[in-house]
Amino acid sequence: MKKYLLDLEVVSAEHISGRYTLLKLTSPHPLPEMLPGQFAEIRVDDSPATFLRRPISINFVDRERNEVWFLVAAIGDGTRRLARLQPGEVVNCLLPLGHGFTMPTAPEQVLLIGGGVGVAPLLYYGACLKAAGSTPVFLLGARSHTDLLLLSEFAKVGRVEVTTEDGSQGEKGFVTGHSILRREQFHRIASCGPLPMMKAVASYAKAHGVACEVSLENKMACGLGACLCCVEPTKDEGNVCVCTQGPVLNINQLLWQV
User: In what order do the strands lie in the sheet with 211-215?
Assistant: First the structure.
């Protein structure tokens, strides 16, 4: 898929909760095609300590408003600068990058499991699944109710189930302990979030014979497969660049103990 280097204008930078900001960008021209699970490398200006672009998952593409959304977790100097962007500022983005989630060839019941900022790519995937006739169900986990992100947006796309570690919202515990996994069956599972969570989801999927893809969050400095910062060992292809051959990979490719 063709990649574009675009100067995009900030429509809004909405502080959601804690360190999280929803960044909405637009262009005077129609945005290029973007697939769920792909990401952008965003240049960070006016941050002397930030030399490299920041890889951010594509959270949603609003074709009616010609907007692309990014969910930013303000962790370091670069992402803190992105979180402080103001409407009208211009952001340079290289996109779309990477290999996204698989779209079913026939309608399916799909469970999308996310934790923390890892919920970001699941919103657009769910919207694309719904538009194609499949049924997305979201299972979202967080430490506390204050860490649950964009629940109202997810609810526009599909049913939302929640877990929190402290029990402040939804079922108490981790996503892999949610009762939905015992009482419902799914054709496919997709997951993004902390590595231990994704490994637990992969173990569940393999034990129950459910197709499963995960979106890895390896460090991706260039996004083009040149720097080799993001390599991941696989069963059949050796070390692969997550930025070009991922970030979405089938669990059967990975050397996880599943």
Answer: 171-172, 159-164, 135-142, 109-115, 188-192, 211-215, 248-250
Q: What is the pTM for the complete model shown?
A: 0.96
In whole angstroms, what is the distance from residue 251 CA to residue 80 CA? 32
Q: For residues 64 and 67, what is the distance between their CA atoms, to the nearest angstrom? A: 8
For residue 257, pLDDT over 70 is answered with: no
End-to-end CA distance of the chain: 32
Q: Select from 206, 100, 97, 193 the least CA-distant residue to 138.
A: 193
197's enclosing H/E stretch is helix 195-207
**Dist. CA 199–CA 209, nearest whole Å:** 15
Element (H, E) at 11: strand 4-17
Nearest CA-CA partner of 230 in 83, 39, 73: 39
122-163: pLDDT as tens digits = 999 999 999 999 999 999 999 999 999 999 999 999 999 999
Residues with Cβ within 8 Å of 93's Cβ and at least 6 positions away in sequence, in order, are 5, 6, 7, 8, 25, 40, 41, 42, 43
Spatial separation of the C-alpha atoms in residues 115 and 191, rounded to whole Å: 8
CA distance 37 to 99: 7
Find the angle CA(194)-CA(184)-CA(201) to the nearest 5 degrees.
20
